[in-house]
Design goal:
By secondary structure, this protein is α+β, with helices and mostly antiparallel strands. The protein has one domain: Vaccinia Virus protein VP39 (Rossmann fold), CATH 3.40.50. The chain contains four helices and four strands. Strands 1, 2, 3 and 4 form a four-stranded antiparallel β-sheet that branches. It is elongated. The N and C termini lie close together (11 Å).
Length: 112
Amino acid sequence: MVVDSAPAPDRADAFNRVEKLRDPSHVRAMPADEHKSLYAKAGLPEPRLTWYRLESEMEALIARSFPNPGDDDKIRALFRASLADDALGIQTRLEDGKIHYGFPVAVLVADR
């Protein structure tokens, strides 16, 4: 079983850019098809795939993150820009004057 962030392929670069700002130890979140390919490489059957969104508010996310000095403002700017076109693929939206989002999370399960 794998439960992990799984951005849309066309949004993965932007998603990973903001994640790296938020947590410099972040390497890369993979789209679901890349996760599936790892199962095949390990000789496992194709996994069942389900999704959910991990919902939160931007300032709460920043408060529990570890950005380098000044990167918190870059994160805010990227979230604000994503309100117009969902460039981050996280369904950014304004609710009561605050930016909310939902990280795409894939749950992949295969039986041996």
